[in-house]
Amino acid sequence: MPVTLNSVLQVLLFMIIVLLVTKPLGLYLTKVFAGERTWLSPVCVPIERFFYRLSGVNPEEEQRWTGYMIAVLIFSVVGMLLLYLLERTQQLHGVLFNPQGFGPVEQQLAFNTASSFTTNTNWQFYTGEQTMSYLTQMAGLTFHQFVSAAAGIALAVALVRGLARRSAQTLGNFWVDLVRCTLYILLPICIVGALVFVWQGMIQNFSPYTVVHTLNGQTQVIAQGPVASMEIIKDLGTNGGGFFNVNAAHPFENPNAFTAMLIILCEISLGAGLFYMFGKMVGDTRQGWVLWIASAILFVIGLAVVIPAEQTGNPLLTRVGANQVVSDTQAGGNMEGKEVRYGITVSSLQEVTTTATSTGTVMSFHDSYTPLGGLVLITNIALGEIIFGGVGAGLYSMIYFAIIAVFIAGLMVGRTPEYLGKKIERKEIMMAVLALLVSPLLVLGFTGVAMALPQGLSSILNPGPHGLTEVLYAYTSANGNNGSAFAGIAASPYYNWTMGMVMLIGRFAEVIPIMAFAGSLVVKRAVPAGLGTFPTTGSLFVALLIGVILIVGALTYFPAYSLGPIVEHLLMYAGRIF
Q: pLDDT at residue 434 above 80?
């Protein structure tokens, strides 16, 4: 498979930029969640105190894991109900906030969307510019893009405290972590980012849609709206829900190559910084860099499969005379569904990033990727988006893989495993495995039921292995709180309801055992490292960690993938249309 020098240089430059922003972001995150003074404190501290007085929260009072988890659930349920209400009452939003006069969102679609944005999934079974009012987009969807991201980061911080603290009882205060994350991290970056996007040509207005006359005498409706303010948080918060139906492939949502690269960087930067924050909080930055390196290796492996697969093109087209060779005069390769302004490399870099980090933002369409390219995208999500990870979710998912890795290492030497000086015993392993089993149970279970019921089969637009891949991808994306789609599934009450349930269960059924795990660890004392302690800061642990991730993923999903993208790849090279 060909790989151009241009592709290698673009990926290398991107990884260097990610490396450069990791430490500064990680240091800032550490200060924010430790309650230390930052350069934003003169502005943010009075606002923060006002929120605490308004809500009656005592910022000095910390919570056990049960109280922390209950606060997360209450906040999520209330937020979801308010968003559902906002969607169902769009006819009352007025001319300013609903100039197109959109009516209430259908009941099952409103449930799906409310579940989606509450859980940081941002799956969209609707056309944004034809369904949602400006008020719903801003006060409903964009609001949840902030707080769902902040909640995910808060959960990860609580888990890190469980590992870092010794003989303690509490994991922090959810309300304080939520406010500080939103106020000190997400809002400042988004204000600057939105202004940069507007400067680059992204729109931000409350104008009614513009009707223009084309050269052939037809009329065309050009959608308007507050796009830039939603675009920045959808990427920074690894949300992915776009203002427009075609997401970041729309020139109003992604005007040029600079904004394209900024979007990709936003998707990955906070996840990378959280790894460094983890190392800093546990008192050994090498621990964070180990997770960073494992993520980087898996990330590059994904790119090393997707980019060559797309640049090689479709052999079926080659057989009928299509020239898919990369040259100075043509892009070559499989350009179907790609962002033609940027080519295969940037398109592939974006889609590998968006599936690795639970973002779901798309610049090109996954359904049009080659079977091998699509296989990497679905696998990124299925592994828990641990590759730099969604905000918070990637960090705590990577940590429980690390726990399983040290458990395996402990079995090899016949010693109780330890991680960061704490013994990992039966209860902790049970919680980690329980969290690990949630995803395959949901993805494979709901996919199997959908493929057996008429309600599930009737919405599949592409028969055969590709149709199976589309259903697998849909439930994988919903469970993984990603939100990107393979397309090919018609919106229906069945998929609206079932995917909405998968989003909620996938978010909270995984988080509860992880928080119980943190609550179990925080009360333990540190155990001095001995001769039998397996080191978790070297290349051997990186190799073991990557091996555990890939083996667990292969054992879990390979049978299903062998009936979908793998068989599709074999059919393509056998010269058969699938």
A: yes
